[in-house]
Specification:
The complex is a heterodimer. Chain A is an all-alpha fold. Chain A has helices at 4-8, 13-42, 46-72, 92-119, 123-152, 158-166. Classes of the chains: A mainly alpha, B alpha+beta. The complex binds fe (ii) ion (2 copies). Residues 26, 29, 59, 62, 106 of chain A line the site of one fe (ii) ion.
């Protein structure tokens, strides 16, 4: 009897389920950043809004990266439900705190992908997971640094704080494996 | 019991490289290594699925809200319309039929 399942896909069920869960998590992350962006936008924090809009798109691209991978490997993806994220924040600091919490949650789940793929000797999925491990270093760093900057800029006008936060991406560290590139 | 036409197709599938995954008085599921298809024969329906669509079909059947069917008294809750993935067909199943079909698909998946 042919192994039709293996002929169709190299993904085992557990790995496919975890990847589908991650598709949903990245989709939700995109929605969360979108809500933060609109909150910042309507409260006059235009620079932060710009950052969160772009972050929202980046999360969607993460979702698509996993979705396309599962399909390329012959698996089945579930397009996730759109959930309404938290709409109101007490301050711009709270936005970045929620975003840090959210990134920590994402990191934990990315680690599950790597762990499950190692368990299943699925080194293709491990590679995908490792790309995200590196991405999460940057994401957590930025969120943490933003909160730190808000604290350091204590006493400055909200306009200055917002402008500084708008350039937060420039604060990201160079990828650790690019240190010896030059 | 399978209807005559279904029984005929089941026999045909079995004769032509059909490998029995499960068979009971309600129906049967067979793997055909010639076409790489899973044949689900149940009640008056025969459907040939690619393996991933077979599993998606199982997911759909498993996902039917049985409690809603039991407790909702309106007429359209007496049965559920189920999509057969990429088989250009929908089937109408009663509560009992869904439970029997679940059993059949579960055993078939186990035998894969
Ligand atoms: Fe992400
Ligand atoms: Fe990023």
């Amino acid at each position: 009897m042919k192994n039709l399942m293996r002929m169709r896909t190299s993904l085992v069920e557990e790995v496919q389920n975890i990847l589908n869960a991650q598709v949903e998590i990245e989709g939700n992350a995109s929605q969360k950043y979108l809500a933060m962006a609109t909150w910042c936008d309507r409260n006059g924090y235009k620079s932060s809004a710009k950052y969160f809009y772009s972050q929202s798109e980046e999360e969607r691209s993460h979702m698509m990266r996993i979705l396309r991978y599962v399909l390329d490997m012959g698996g089945t993806v579930v397009t996730p439900e759109v959930k309404m994220p938290k709409q109101d924040y007490t301050s711009i600091r709270e936005c970045f705190e929620v975003s840090l919490e959210s990134e920590i949650f994402v990191t934990k789940n990315i680690n599950k992908i790597v762990a499950a793929s190692r368990e299943a000797n699925d080194f293709a999925t491990e590679q995908l997971g490792l790309w995200f491990v590196k991405e999460q270093i940057e994401e957590e760093y930025i969120a943490r640094r933003a909160i730190e900057m808000i604290d350091l800029l204590d006493g400055e006008s909200m306009f200055v704080i917002d402008t500084e936060l708008g350039n937060i991406r420039a604060q990201a560290p160079a990828p650790f494996d690019a240190a010896e590139a030059e | 019991m399978l209807c005559n036409q279904t029984q005929r197709i089941v026999n045909l599938v079995k004769q032509n490289f059909g490998i029995e995954l499960v068979e009971n008085e309600k129906g049967g599921v067979y793997q055909c290594d010639k076409t790489n298809r899973i044949y689900v024969c149940y009640a008056t329906t025969v459907a040939a699925f690619r393996i991933d669509n077979f599993l998606n079909f199982k997911r759909i059947v498993d996902g039917v809200d049985i409690h809603q069917m039991i407790y909702n008294l309106s007429d359209d809750c007496d049965y559920e319309i189920i999509d057969l993935p990429n088989a250009s067909k929908k089937i109408k199943l009663t509560l009992c039929e869904i439970i029997h079909l679940r059993e059949l698909l579960e055993s078939a998946k186990f035998a894969l």
